[in-house]
Amino acid sequence: MAIEWKGVFPAVTTKFNEKDELDLPLFEKNLTAQLSAGVAGIIIGGSLGESSTVSVEELSKLVESGLKVAAGKVPIIVNIATGSTKEAVTLAGNIKTWGAQGIMLLPPMRYKSTDNETVQFFRTVAESTDLPILLYNNPVDYKTEITLDMFEQLQDIPNIQAVKESTRDVSNVIRMRNHFGERFAILCGVDTLTFEELSSGADGLVAGLVCAFPRETVAIYKFIKNNQHDKALAIYRWFMPLLEFDITPQLVQYIKLAEVYTDLGSEIVRAPRLQLSGTQRTEAIQIIETALRNRPLTLVEEGLAL
Q: Given a cut of 80, is residue 1 above it in pLDDT?
């Protein structure tokens, strides 16, 4: 399946039960809600999916489950985040074997690779597979930036097709466009910059709070792409206190808590993560409950109908 890198791509959470096992029925319930809202693809095993604590066997089950729910309607994209080129190549092969349609690829983990090492890592993985690849550019959290010069060295590789733009620099969307035109699709990777980067010409977004609020997220995207920025902004302003959950170290816990309140998930996280507690949890619930009381349902329905 060719991937059109446009629209909303949820980086879905991984659901666990009280026995610390995968909760596939709950996982599939959330995916069904995403598809119903009109997302363009599903990303499995990202940072929000607690990839560092999910085994390869569990990842294969999540992909199998995702493919079943997606039923060919949208692509399933699987994240690779590893410190070893050899492991990354092996995972790329597994992802292809499992039947997923794309890869999201981070720079090497744990070791801060040089620019040359990072480019070679991406090149080696990309040349080992024919699956479309979305590079993840997040120097804030992962300390390695994919610079314009590095993209220049990678543009001859046809299956490196898109970037998840998480540098936190909104103007980087313009820099990428000025330098490469349409060579790389650009997906906003930071929830709190959704309006700004889509308005600057980003093709779509890899979103986090979409896990709990798929319809609102898709509505923002549709309004902006239909040049109805005032309506997108009205939803975005309502959404902002929730979107700020995405830029905290405990984003998984916050977003899973929000999923509970929209009946799309549970609070259960995998250790070493712990569920929110005390004032932190109380304040998060207040933000969620306030948002739910003021949910712009009519405007969202108008956006989804576009």
A: no
Tell me the Cα Rg of the chain.
18
Point out which residues pair with 16 in neighbouring strands.
Answer: 22
The H or E element that residue 133 is part of is strand 133-137
> Each residue of 81-96: pLDDT tens digit?
999 999 999 999 999 9
Q: What's the CA gap between 229 and 219, in Å, rounded?
A: 11
- Cβ density class 129-147: b for 16+ within 10 Å, e for less: bebbbbbbbbeeebebbbb
Contacts for 157 with CB less than 8 Å, ≥ 6 apart: 122, 123, 126, 127
Give SS3 for 103. Answer: strand
Q: Cα separation of 125 and 90, whole Å?
A: 9
Distance CA 17, CA 6 (A): 33
Give the pLDDT of residue 99.
98
Decide if 73 contacts 81 (C-beta within 8 A).
Answer: no
Q: What is the pLDDT of residues 102-155, one digit of tens each?
A: 999 999 998 999 999 999 999 999 999 999 999 999 999 988 999 999 999 999
Q: For residue 255, give the DSSP letter.
A: H
Check whether 206 is labelled as a binding-site residue: yes
Neighbours of 69 (CB within 10 A): 19
Average pLDDT over residues 221-228: 98
Which sequence spans correspond to the domains of the chain?
7-304
Average pLDDT of the chain to the nearest whole number: 97
Q: Please tell me the distance from the alpha carbon of residue 189 to that of residue 178, in angstroms, as a whole number.
A: 19
Can you give the length of the chain in residues? 306
User: Which CATH number is associated with domain 7-304?
Assistant: 3.20.20.70
The residues annotated as belonging to the active site are: 136, 164
Label the pairing between strands 7-10 and 133-137. Answer: unpaired
